[in-house]
Amino acid sequence: MSAEERKDWDTYFMDIAYMVSTRSRCPRRHVGAVLVQGKKLLGTAYNGAPSGVPDCSEAGCMISEEVELVVTDGREEMVKKQRCIRTIHAEQNLLLFTDRIDREGSTVYVTDEPCWTCSNMLANSGIVEVIYHRSYPKDEGKVKKLMEQKGIVFRQMDNYEPPHQTRMKVSN
């Protein structure tokens, strides 16, 4: 990128979300989220244990296993999912630490496609758009349907390259 070129706004805010994700100490996935209204940054958050409580790097992941009935092409299948329940997700922290009035009509940039629980929370938060980079296949179909039902713009940045210093191998 030359000195005269500038990043587009989506790239700029997603870069910030990735930089925020570097604060996470989760060994499975670093997630960052930012709240933006217009071109104004209103808040940032990352996934992690509650303040003052040992996190996964100190106390280990707290894995919960759940089973979900998934119907694909008329065929029912029980799918096992593992989730760490020690951490608060980046989207949840973002909603905890921002005001509803600021969220009305705003956009959330998040490094990873929100899970089902976060999507439910975002759907009632006042935001109008979610932009993410990495997909989260465990909940993808039902999350997209929810966002469509709520009229929330939901899009993936396919050709985006995160800042080099923020890259980590993620676990699904």
TrEMBL record:
UniProt superkingdom: Bacteria
Cofactor(s) it depends on: Zn(2+)
CMP/dCMP-type deaminase domain: residues covered: 8-154
Pfam families to which the protein is assigned, alphabetical: dCMP_cyt_deam_1 (PF00383)
Keywords: Hydrolase, Metal-binding, Zinc
Family: Belongs to the cytidine and deoxycytidylate deaminase family.
Protein name: dCMP deaminase family protein
